[in-house]
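Supplementary Note 3. Input sequence used for the single-chain structure prediction.
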Amino acid sequence: MNRIFLDHPIGELVAKIQAQELSPDDLMRAAIDNIAEMDGQFHAWTAYRDTGWQARTTPMDGYAVPEKLLDGIPVGVKDIYNTVDFATEMGSPIWKGFTPGNDARAVYHLKRQGAQVAGKTVTAEFAVHALDKTLNPWDVTKTPGTSSSGSAVAIALGQVPLATGSQTAGSIVRPASFCGVYGMKPSFGTIPRTGTLKTTDSLDTLGFFTIHEADLRRGFDAVRIRGLDYPISNSALADESRQKKPTDRPWRVALAKAHTWQYASDYAQKALEGFAEKLTKNGIEITEAQLPSALERSHEIHETIYNKALSYYFKGEYKQSDFVSPIMNELIAKGNMISSEIYKQVLQDQLDLIRAMDTFFADCDVLISLSTAGEAPPREITESPDPSLIWTLAHLPVVSVPQFSSPAKLPFGFQAAARKYNDYLLLDFLDELREKGMIPSRGGLYE
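The predicted structure, written as discrete structure tokens, is reproduced below.
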């Protein structure tokens, strides 16, 4: 395997390109070689550049920003994002060969920052629940996570240094945890959803995976929305009083067990508690989170919103039995039974939770919780409940960190979350932990 990506964060690769020590073609060819070598075994890609690739296309060069954050970097794009040069099939045979003829806004932003699209990564059917062909490289009998599985596996194998994902419940955090990589789900709405598959208006959040912790900030800077057209997020992300911890006190971190703690494996509970003790010994203030009691209904609220929205957006696909999975039809059928009045009420419930969590962060900078209940379960077993969808429902920015290893030597992570729109504060926290050696500088299968 060509190890050109695995040994260097994106910033170092970009510096080598700009110093003409590497070329964009060098990186793309390395990506193609890595994908071609491993994809027949782990199936992370629906399509990718062929080995005859000669040079990157340059139509974005006239629109590129002066400092290209991803100059020449090959990226994987989850197959729910539109791309000009690849089909967008969304994990469904109904849409096989569909070519939208445009790039999703997030893909446009990646290209504007100099990125090259290496190919499209496998997603679950319509980014929902039906697991596709991708295998977990740590143990092929285990699930890689569902919706963003292809992107997480591509990162774990070092095939590209950055790959896009999306999360409506836990579809970035869970694959990141099960595959041992970094996964970021930013604050809701901070990455534009134009040109991507829509499943649930108040939940769908775009994000990405990286090997190196140091690449999270660069990835977020490359794709997030900016400017006065987005006054709320633009103001919050630029507000140093929100984004910088006061220098005269330590970090204040809440250990959040939530109502899903009972489903976590004993070894996972001990791992997170042990990590909290480690943080305390390093001068970080840890308190056990007193979460809003309304969060105990989060799974119920999420399910109602999710199923009702699926029944609306996929009414055309419903009961196309030869092409739609039983689980998808089941969710749509449940959504059809939900009245408009109930849907409006749970949307209000979600808004109340968002406000409650905004108030919660008055007393802490960051919260930490498990990413998943433990290591990846067998492919045929549904994942145990975890906190991922709670923080999605509350619109919080989260990062899954590849911190732990199960007794079977399989990875699982913890997730750090912050107040909505405090994405840079969250990244500052993780950067400090990495610099002090408290979290790994990189994840992935290969050291």
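Residues 10-246+371-435 form a domain with the Amidase signature (AS) enzymes fold (CATH 3.90.1300.10). Residues 340-360 form the longest helix (21 residues).
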